[in-house]
């Protein structure tokens, strides 16, 4: 066991002189009933700083003394002023340096520091007089009032110096006004003049010898910060939020899709979703195509034929897009633009294995050939939920989305009709943002088109509802980040991770 | 999604009602439009920038938006678009020459008779062509529109494709004639036209439409001739659309005709143009066909989650510009107008019904689906998360870096020769930072260190994420030719960073995975085997072997790699393929 009774704090490392000072203060207090820090310092010729240290240590003992702080305006000498206080004013120094026969003005001007001022002031005081080219003493002895005043100020007796003199000296930059904190010490309830040595730590020896029973411990300073022994390990905030969303899906009974395939064929990414080959999203401006391996190895041929037919001439009640569908285009490899490519694979597999109702989810990386800026990256995490069941309705999709968003504390939702090539109906999800006082888009949703589902072999009366959102967007809002590159990527500053060790969602 | 700029006052005039911004925004929300921005300019007045669904070509201009919203609000009924016989049947022809098949094989045409342009109508007409070119026509690659003052030209018109040297004409808004190849050279520097130049530039022949006298109407898909230019005084308009996609040309033409025939003396009509292909095929355009689509009442009701009668469904569909009639109790017959090429299937009808019913009304009665299922994590993610937690318990901090790297960061800076690696190469990155899909997590950790030199040492970082390799195996790559591999990478960067520190961490991981340390190279356990790797310091690098299979490296980072990332302290790291480790140890089972 290791008990730490003191972790730093004032007075801890002070030597015996502090102990002596504390004792002196206590004696003085017993005699006078009050000790004023600056006056006490002057009286015993000790620096104010040390006196304050001793007072603080006494204060830390508990109720031995009461301490009150007062702000005090006072004066102190500048560097030049301190020189005058110790060595005399310039004019006095000049007077004292003169031999009885005097010196030539030119000689003084060349060799005496501050000669102009010194000459002027000494003449004005009638200490010197002019005799031809020379200056000679006019008195045998002088009284250096300037030095006396400045000595008084150095000694903290500024009150004895007339105010007009202080104003003049301030102008001459000999003194300046300062504010100091003065401590007024009075006796406390447990006042005593006998203080005992306090121990900073409970030690192994004290425990073994039982010495701790007789030891007085320095009180623990509850106001100081703790000390970090070794930096802990942390999880990245975005990855923590990812875990929260995974948890929500699992609580709702969703199964996680295997999304660990970043390279996808255009077939699964677009064609299988009934996204026509001339669709702008398939443009190289938006999608990262893969140069190597540029072509996919294989796609289930019978399924491909059905997809081709549905696109080019229609089927399953659809007139299709009426264009020449190209196998080459479908066989191009790309970096998947959405995890819906994986949903398509899963739904196809589900149909092959024999359909039964399912709920799927995934949270994983998708790629867009974006021009990068503060809110757009070339890759981000897409959160996607998919439910396939017989005769699902828009109301079911809305209910599902509401249930999901309630889990992250978003309760006010609206749905706007929208367009998406592979869902019909499609709805944008809006939530009311209290801060912005308006509805903001938080996600996208829809029911997969029959032209997507039927070629897979999904039964006719099965509908598949899906919704999606990005992981980064809510993370940016949660952590108050405006530039996405401060959240993800290799240039993220560690402070983000260290300062956000735990991620919780306001549910 | 395309955005259409609409003059607010003109729109409200067409709708016969003035709205506040909030009221109009709400109307748009209900209908599935979105007011993206409101701009107030001194000369133009207030403009609404309205975002339109990418499949609704009929909403790409103020005429279409006003008409659809008026029908939705019940203020007018959907017009009946009609094709009229041509006034000059012999002249309103487009004769297609065989050479066009080498470059742009299809053409369609129509005539708008006695149209009245105002400046606003003219601007809108030009703007819609531009919108159609950008969206449906995929930047003129699929379809290109040319519109002409019919009274300046004489049919029949010839659609030909000729060598560029043989084509010469005065292009739109120019005063002198240019040869087609010179013209394209000039336009390759034109900010507006340069993006279309490559569509035909290197073709042996260029498409060209001329009139009976050889006047060049247009050089599709680049520019029209100046001769047949449309002005505010033009009364009769000849529209031609050349295409590589015949069906889309039909859509573009129908859309233009439907939107602007409203300004003809005989509203919503167009005169037909006959296209004559070299094989003798003769086709009349515009089509303006009304397609019948039957929608089942129960299907619509199930999809929306309501129970409306056939008559009511028909009424609601009609308000969505889909004229419909009930056919008994179970069916609704919809006449899909030539403005609604987005309707492909019954589901499109059902959606319009749901929109007309109102999403807010549906939301008022939303229900959780009855689907009861038991959730299941993807095992690899489940185990990855366990390892992430373990790493943080070992005082390593997680980073989240990118999957895409520059070749420089992944290759040269790591001292790795990418020619020897099966890495996935991105074909069309916009920046060098997205040239390659990563084969290792280590460069991301090195870059993170470089960005955090202000943090007191030691810096102990880790990442668990996927890297990607080319692979010819169809099953492991799911048919694509590339597969993900889940890696764990950890690095210790410090004034002194011996391998033993990260090795201790590796030991802890192996304990967690129940793999014993077997320095005697046993087939059941793990050990290290000295083997150099370009990113590590020679002699201080080894393979991590689990059950006799190499699963990764451990070692002291090569000093050149350290300095390549502008770092100056030693670092030790390991990177292992955890997917492989889990597989060969059968962990979790």
Question: Which properties best describe this structure?
Answer:
heterodimer; A: 507 residues; alpha+beta; Ribosomal Protein S8, Chain: A, domain 1; Arc Repressor Mutant, subunit A; BirA Bifunctional Protein, domain 2; 3 domains; seven-stranded mixed β-sheet; three-stranded antiparallel β-sheet; 19 helices; 16 strands; 22% strand; elongated; disordered N terminus; B: 589 residues; eleven-stranded mixed β-sheet; 17 helices; 28% helix
Summarize the structure.
The complex is a heterodimer of chains A (507) and B (589). By secondary structure, chain A is α+β, with helices and mostly antiparallel strands. Chain A has 19 helices and 16 strands.
Secondary structure layout:
The complex is a heterodimer of chains A (507) and B (589).
Chain A: H1 16-32, E1 34-36, H2 37-44, H3 48-59, E2 65-77, H4 79-87, H5 90-97, E3 103-104, H6 105-111, H7 115-124, E4 128-131, E5 134-137, H8 145-154, H9 163-171, E6 175-187, H10 204-209, H11 237-251, E7 255-256, E8 263-265, H12 266-269, E9 290-292, H13 301-312, H14 327-331, E10 333-335, H15 340-353, E11 358-367, E12 379-390, H16 394-406, E13 413-420, E14 423-433, E15 438-448, H17 450-453, E16 462-470, H18 472-479, H19 494-499
Parallel strand pairs in A: 7-11
Antiparallel strand pairs in A: 1-6, 2-6, 3-5, 4-5, 8-10, 11-12, 12-16, 13-14, 14-15, 15-16
Helix pairs in contact in A: 1-3, 2-3, 4-8, 5-7
Chain B: E1 3-7, H1 8-15, H2 21-31, E2 34-41, E3 45-51, H3 62-72, E4 82-84, E5 93-96, E6 106-112, H4 119-134, E7 143-149, E8 157-162, E9 168-169, E10 178-179, H5 180-187, H6 197-200, E11 206-210, E12 216-219, E13 223-224, E14 237-243, H7 246-260, E15 269-276, E16 282-285, E17 291-296, H8 297-304, H9 310-319, E18 323-327, E19 331-336, H10 346-357, H11 359-363, H12 379-393, E20 397-398, E21 404-405, H13 407-410, E22 424-426, E23 436-437, H14 442-450, E24 459-470, E25 482-493, H15 499-512, E26 526-530, E27 536-546, E28 549-557, H16 559-564, E29 571-577, H17 578-585
Parallel strand pairs in B: 4-15, 5-8, 5-15, 20-24
Antiparallel strand pairs in B: 1-3, 2-3, 6-14, 6-15, 7-14, 8-11, 9-10, 11-12, 12-13, 15-16, 17-19, 18-19, 21-23, 22-23, 24-25, 25-29, 26-27, 27-28, 28-29
């Amino acid at each position: 066991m290791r008990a730490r009774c003191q972790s730093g704090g004032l007075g801890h490392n002070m030597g015996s002189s502090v102990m002596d000072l504390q004792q002196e203060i206590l004696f003085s207090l017993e005699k006078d009933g009050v000790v004023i820090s600056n006056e006490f310092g002057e009286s015993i010729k000790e620096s104010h700083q040390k006196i304050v240290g001793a007072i603080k240590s006494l204060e830390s003992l508990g109720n031995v003394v009461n301490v009150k702080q007062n702000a005090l305006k006072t004066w102190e000498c500048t560097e030049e002023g301190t020189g005058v206080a110790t060595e005399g004013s310039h004019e006095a120094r000049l007077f004292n340096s003169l031999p009885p026969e005097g010196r030539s003005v030119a000689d003084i001007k060349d060799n005496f520091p501050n000669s102009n001022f010194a000459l002027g002031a000494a003449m004005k005081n009638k200490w010197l007089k002019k005799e031809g080219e020379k200056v000679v003493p006019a008195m045998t002895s002088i009284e250096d009032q300037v030095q006396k005043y400045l000595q008084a100020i150095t000694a903290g007796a500024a009150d004895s110096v007339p105010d007009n003199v202080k104003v003049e000296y301030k102008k001459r930059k000999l003194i300046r006004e300062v504010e100091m904190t003065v401590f007024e010490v009075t006796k406390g309830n447990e006042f005593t003049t006998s203080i005992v040595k306090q121990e900073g730590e409970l030690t192994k020896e004290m425990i073994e010898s039982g010495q701790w029973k007789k030891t007085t411990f320095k009180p623990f300073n509850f106001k100081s910060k703790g000390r970090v022994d070794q930096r802990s390990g942390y999880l990245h905030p975005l990855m923590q939020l990812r875990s929260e969303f995974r948890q929500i899906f699992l609580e709702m009974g969703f199964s996680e899709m295997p999304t660990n395939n970043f390279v996808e064929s255009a077939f699964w990414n677009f064609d299988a979703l009934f996204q026509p080959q001339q669709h702008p999203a398939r443009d190289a401006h938006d999608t990262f195509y893969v140069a190597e391996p540029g072509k996919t190895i294989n796609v289930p041929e019978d399924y491909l034929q059905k997809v081709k037919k549905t696109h080019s001439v229609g089927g399953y009640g659809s007139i299709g897009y009426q264009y020449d569908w190209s196998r080459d285009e479908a066989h191009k490899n790309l970096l998947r633009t959405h995890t819906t490519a994986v949903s398509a694979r899963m739904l196809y597999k589900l149909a092959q294995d024999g359909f039964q109702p399912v709920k799927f989810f995934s949270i994983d990386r998708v790629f867009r050939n974006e021009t990068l800026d503060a809110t757009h990256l070339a890759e981000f995490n897409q959160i996607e939920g998919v439910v396939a069941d017989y005769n699902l309705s828009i109301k079911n999709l809305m209910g599902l989305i509401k249930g999901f968003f309630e889990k992250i504390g978003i309760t006010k939702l609206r749905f706007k009709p929208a367009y998406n090539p592979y869902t019909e109906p499609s709805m944008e999800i809006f939530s009311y943002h209290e801060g912005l006082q308006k509805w903001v888009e938080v996600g996208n949703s829809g029911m997969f088109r029959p032209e997507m589902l039927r070629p897979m072999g999904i039964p006719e009366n099965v509908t598949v509802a899906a919704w999606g959102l990005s992981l980064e967007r809510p993370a940016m809002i949660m952590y108050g980040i405006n530039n996405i590159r401060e959240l993800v990527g290799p240039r993220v500053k560690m402070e983000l991770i260290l300062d956000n060790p735990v991620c919780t969602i306001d549910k | 999604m395309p955005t259409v700029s609409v003059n607010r006052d003109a729109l409200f005039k067409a709708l016969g009602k003035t709205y506040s911004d909030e009221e109009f925004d709400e109307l748009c929300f209900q209908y599935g439009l979105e007011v993206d921005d409101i701009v107030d300019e001194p000369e133009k007045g207030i403009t609404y920038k309205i975002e339109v669904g990418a499949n609704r070509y009929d909403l790409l201009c103020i005429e279409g938006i006003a008409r659809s919203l008026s029908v939705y609000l019940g203020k007018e009924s959907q017009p009946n678009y009609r094709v009229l016989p041509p006034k000059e049947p012999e002249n309103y022809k487009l004769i297609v020459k065989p050479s066009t098949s080498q470059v742009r094989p299809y053409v369609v045409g129509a005539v708008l008779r006695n149209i009245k342009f105002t400046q606003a109508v003219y601007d809108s007409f030009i703007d819609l062509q531009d919108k159609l070119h950008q969206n449906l026509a995929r930047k003129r690659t699929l379809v290109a529109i040319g519109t002409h003052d019919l009274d300046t030209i004489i049919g029949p018109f010839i659609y030909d494709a000729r060598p560029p040297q043989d084509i010469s004409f005065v292009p739109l808004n120019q005063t002198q004639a240019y040869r087609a190849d010179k013209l394209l050279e000039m336009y390759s520097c034109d900010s507006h036209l340069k993006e279309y130049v490559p569509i035909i530039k290197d073709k042996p022949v260029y498409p060209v439409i001329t009139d009976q006298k050889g006047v060049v109407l247009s050089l599709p898909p680049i520019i029209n001739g100046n001769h047949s230019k449309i002005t505010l005084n033009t009364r009769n308009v000849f529209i031609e659309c050349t295409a590589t996609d015949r069906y889309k040309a039909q859509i573009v033409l129908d859309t233009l005709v439907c939107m602007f025939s409203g300004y003809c003396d005989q509203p919503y009509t167009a005169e037909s143009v006959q296209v004559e292909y070299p094989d003798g095929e003769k086709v009349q355009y515009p089509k303006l066909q009304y397609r019948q689509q039957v929608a089942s009442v129960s299907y619509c009701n199930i999809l929306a989650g309501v129970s409306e009668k056939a008559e009511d469904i028909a009424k609601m569909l009609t308000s969505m510009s889909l004229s419909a009639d009930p056919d008994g109790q179970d069916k609704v017959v919809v006449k899909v107008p030539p403005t609604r090429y987005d309707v492909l299937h019954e589901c499109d009808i059902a959606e319009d019904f749901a929109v007309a019913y109102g999403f807010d009304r549906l939301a008022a009665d939303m229900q959780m689906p009855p689907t009861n299922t038991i959730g299941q994590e993807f095992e690899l993610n489940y185990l990855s998360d366990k390892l992430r937690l373990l790493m943080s318990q070992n005082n390593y901090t997680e980073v989240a870096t990118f999957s895409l790297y520059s070749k420089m960061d992944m290759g040269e800076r790591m001292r790795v020769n990418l020619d020897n690696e099966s890495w996935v190469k991105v074909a069309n990155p916009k920046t060098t930072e997205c040239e390659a899909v990563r084969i290792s997590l280590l460069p991301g950790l090195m870059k993170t260190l470089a960005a955090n030199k202000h943090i007191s040492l030691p810096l102990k970082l880790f990442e668990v994420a996927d890297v990607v390799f080319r692979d010819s195996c169809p099953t492991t790559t799911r048919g694509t030719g590339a597969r993900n591999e889940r890696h764990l990478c950890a690095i210790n960067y410090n004034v002194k960073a011996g391998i033993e520190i990260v090795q201790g961490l590796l030991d802890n991981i192996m304990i967690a995975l129940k793999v014993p340390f077997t320095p005697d190279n046993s087939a059941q356990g793990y050990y290290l085997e000295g083997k150099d790797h370009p990113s590590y310091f020679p002699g201080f690098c080894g393979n991590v072997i689990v059950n006799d299979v190499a699963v990764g490296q451990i070692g002291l980072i090569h000093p050149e790699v350290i300095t390549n990332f502008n770092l100056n302290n030693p670092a030790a790291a390991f990177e292992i393929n955890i997917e492989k480790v889990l597989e060969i140890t059968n962990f979790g089972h």
